[in-house]
Design a protein that fits this description.
single chain, alpha+beta, endopeptidase fold (from Nostoc punctiforme), 7-stranded antiparallel sheet, 5 helices, transmembrane helix, transmembrane, lipid metabolism, phospholipase A1 activity, N-acyltransferase activity
Length: about 170
C-alpha cells in the first residue's frame, strides 16, 4: 500500500530518496521527487523568476519547463506537503539508484510542459516508475469532458426548442 503521511515545512518527516512529494498549493497540487539531504527535483516554468514561486498562473499556461534541484523547504514555503507514493500498488518503482541517476541527468534541462498531458506529476512518476501518470490531469480532463458534454446538451435543447417554436407559427 502507498505510504501517505502529512507534514508541513516546519515538520518535514523523513522522506527517502525516490519518494514522491505532493505539495498542496492553494488551487492545485505540485509534485516533486525527493533526492536526499533535503533536496528535491521538480519542474518550474522556464520564464519564471525565483524558482520557489511555482504557484503563479504562469505555470498553468507555460509550454516549457526547467528541471530544477531545490531544497524541499524552499519549494514548500508556507504550504504543506506529504510523501505520496500512491502508484506503488499499480506500478513497480524502479531501483532507487536508477531513479536518482535519471533525475540528476535532467537537472537544468528544459523540457516540454502541458498541464493535461505532461505536467509535474507526469514528470516525477516517469522518474519513479518509468511511466508518466497523473490523477490530477485525469480529473481535469474528465471535468472538461463533462462541461463540454453538458454545453452540447444545452445547445441541442436550445436548438430543439427554437425549431419547435418555428413549427408552431
Amino acid at each position: 500500500m502507498a505510504a501517505i503521511a502529512s507534514f508541513s515545512a516546519t515538520c518535514p518527516g523523513d522522506p527517502e530518496p525516490g519518494d514522491l512529494i505532493e505539495i498542496f498549493r492553494p488551487a492545485y497540487q505540485h509534485w516533486a521527487l525527493y533526492l536526499g539531504d533535503g533536496y528535491i527535483i521538480n519542474v518550474t516554468p522556464v520564464d519564471e523568476g525565483p524558482p520557489a514561486t511555482f504557484a503563479s498562473a504562469k505555470s498553468v499556461f507555460s509550454r516549457k519547463a526547467r528541471v530544477r534541484m531545490q531544497l524541499l523547504k524552499d519549494v514548500v514555503g508556507n504550504d504543506t506537503y506529504h510523501i505520496n507514493n500512491k502508484y506503488d500498488g499499480t506500478y513497480a518503482p524502479l531501483p532507487v539508484e536508477e531513479i536518482i541517476r535519471r533525475a540528476e541527468y535532467l537537472i537544468d534541462q528544459e523540457v516540454s510542459y502541458d498541464l493535461l498531458g505532461n505536467n509535474c506529476e507526469h514528470f516525477v512518476t516517469l522518474l519513479r516508475y518509468g511511466e508518466g501518470v497523473s490523477d490530477q490531469a485525469k480529473r481535469a480532463i474528465g471535468a472538461i469532458g463533462f462541461v463540454t458534454a453538458a454545453a452540447g446538451a444545452f445547445s441541442l435543447l436550445g436548438l430543439l426548442r427554437s425549431r419547435s417554436r418555428e413549427k408552431q407559427y
